[in-house]
Amino acid sequence: MKNNLSLIFGLIAICLTACSEKSETVTIPAQRWKDIDVRIETHPSPPLAGMSEIVVIVTGPRGRPIPDLTVSLRASESMPWVQAIQDGLIGVYRRAVDIGDGESVILQVHLQQGSDEQIMRFPIKLAAS
To answer: What does the CA dihedral 76, 30, 52, 129 come to, rounded to 10 degrees?
Structure first.
């Protein structure tokens, strides 16, 4: 009896897993400035049209955070820059950004460290509506 119940529960678990909606996380290639690696993630992934959370992960040599760094974001040249909020002192910056609508967008990430600054462009494909 125990073996039959285990088998039935195992089959139900397999069926539920097979029927569940697949999560399709999009990987956006990292970019480099000086000795700084910059990666972005979107929540949800792929992002939907409108507001999406953008997470910028900035690491220096040996994966350490970069001191005195300001990170700002925008989804087009016509939009104002919005400063991302640092999430602890671990090199993670977050901000909800209006990425507009359409099929894709070029997310701009502005990095400023002292008088040095750089704008990086990350192409993002939006989720089908």
So the answer is: 90
Q: Which of 53, 55, 54, 30 is nearest to 120 (CA)?
A: 30
**CA 46 to CA 56: how far, in whole Å?**
15
For the chain, the domains span: 24-125
pLDDT band per the 50, 70, 90 thresholds, residue 102: confident
pTM (two decimals): 0.78
Q: pLDDT per residue over 7-59, tens digit each?
A: 555 545 454 444 444 456 778 999 999 999 999 999 999 998 999 999 999 99
Q: Are 116 and 35 in contact (CB under 8 A)?
A: no
d(CA 63, CA 28): 18
Q: 24-125 is classed in which CATH architecture?
A: Sandwich (2.60)
Which has the closest alpha carbon to 120: 40, 26, 35?
40
